[in-house]
Design brief:
The protein is α+β, with helices and mostly antiparallel strands and about 400 residues long. The chain is about 30% helix and about 20% strand. Strands 1, 2, 3, 4, 10, 11, 12 and 13 form an eight-stranded antiparallel beta sheet that branches. The radius of gyration is 25 Å and the shape is globular.
Length: about 400
């Protein structure tokens, strides 16, 4: 099952087939005499159309074929695929089911959960405030959270953005089914000792980005999700992108799934609070992400210098690049000789990936509704079909 609004294959499947007829083979039409030319031409056109249809029918779409095969191998219920060149979508397609119980197909408008792909929006919001002079990257976080622990006086905003601050992840005994206030969550984070001196190691930290969301709130007076809506999503026309809410009516919302002993199960439930934090709690569709990708080629949101800083690997205090190859909300790699900025996500039965080959101006996004899916692998394979 495949649904698309923009569909084209790789260059091999995008070729147009033509039928060339030698002019000497056409019958001449003489003045004052009836000619068989109209009938002959009609036959030629019909025959040519048949040839074109047959040619396309005999040329399978290698991208779609791969997606179908990989979904079957990984047992993915549903998947959305975006491929864009220079900010212009060339594929926006849905495969499989967004809701297995109701047998609803995935389409380009289908809304998935972001997981940690949402961190790039949090980082963008911070950089907007940096450009406005409301936040400084090398200020201690205590400049914005006045009651934070004394140890946080050594932690900078730059280090929170790059996972080099010494922050850790949710504690093992953390109750994901309890509803917390923002103040409750901050107290939990503050109670956890720093794992290492800030700026000396890299360790992926959801709590660091949760804290950045609180910083945005303290600096602007707005819940970070409202700030994103007002400053990013609405200006770009990202009409489906928003903070997760299981209570609200959300058109085209996909269900998330997991495999338990090979059997498909619904996603595990978490409290509403945990779907509002800045470490990755968004809804979005590939159509909205196409708009996001296009905006990143411009200065609609941030100056080019700010984007470049986000896409540069942050250095430790000793001057060495961090071991996670991480910038601000993005990982920076070189893959098969191509510069790549990317991020994945995983949350509540969803796995996501955005891969932007910036020098090639190629972007691949894969959104899947299975917690064990491998969207990064799929995006990498699809990108290879387009890169030369």
């Amino acid at each position: 099952m495949q649904n698309s609004v923009i569909a084209s294959g790789t260059e091999q499947s995008e070729k147009t087939f033509f039928s060339v007829i030698p002019t000497g083979a056409l019958p001449s039409a003489r003045k004052g005499k009836r000619s068989g030319w109209p009938c002959f031409l009609g036959g030629i056109i019909l025959f040519s159309l048949c040839l074109i249809s047959a040619a396309f029918a005999q040329t399978p779409d290698p991208v779609a074929t791969y997606i179908h095969e990989e979904m079957q191998r990984e047992k993915i219920p549903g998947l959305a695929l975006l491929v864009s060149r220079d900010g212009n979508p060339v594929r926006a397609e849905g495969y499989g089911l967004s809701n297995v119980e109701l047998q609803v197909p995935v389409k380009p408008e289908t809304v998935f959960q972001s997981g940690s792909m949402g961190k790039q929006f949090t980082a963008t919001a911070i950089m907007m405030l940096v450009e406005e002079g409301k936040i400084k990257l090398d200020d201690p976080v205590t400049s914005y959270l006045k009651d934070a622990p004394a140890a946080w006086q050594q932690v900078t905003i730059r280090e929170l953005l790059s996972h080099t601050a010494g922050f850790t992840d949710y504690p093992k005994k953390f109750d994901f089914r309890k509803d917390y206030t923002e103040a409750d969550l901050l107290k939990i984070v503050e109670a956890i000792p720093l794992a290492y001196p800030p700026g000396t190691k890299w360790d992926y930290s959801n709590l660091g980005y949760l804290t950045l969301g609180i910083v945005i709130h303290r600096v602007t007076g707005q819940f970070y999700g409202d700030f994103l809506q007002e400053r990013i999503f609405q200006p770009l026309g990202m009409s489906t992108t928003r903070i997760i809410s299981e209570a609200d009516i959300v058109p085209n919302r996909s269900a998330g799934y997991r495999l338990v002993k090979g059997e498909l199960k619904n996603q595990e439930w978490v409290s509403p609070t945990l779907n509002t934090t800045a470490d990755g709690a968004l809804y979005f569709s590939i159509l909205d992400l196409a708009k996001w990708d296009a905006a990143l080629y411009t200065e609609k949101l941030l100056k080019r210098s700010s984007l470049d800083e986000m896409w540069t690997v942050v250095k430790f205090k000793n001057g060495q690049p961090n071991s996670g190859d991480y910038g601000f909300g993005w990982e920076i790699e070189t893959r098969n000789g191509h510069r790549l900025i990317r991020h994945s996500g995983s949350w509540q039965g969803f796995r996501t990936e955005i891969s932007r080959y910036v020098d090639d101006k190629l972007t691949v996004v894969v959104l899947a509704n299975l917690e064990s899916a491998e969207p990064s692998k799929i995006a990498d394979h699809v990108a290879k079909m387009y890169l030369h």
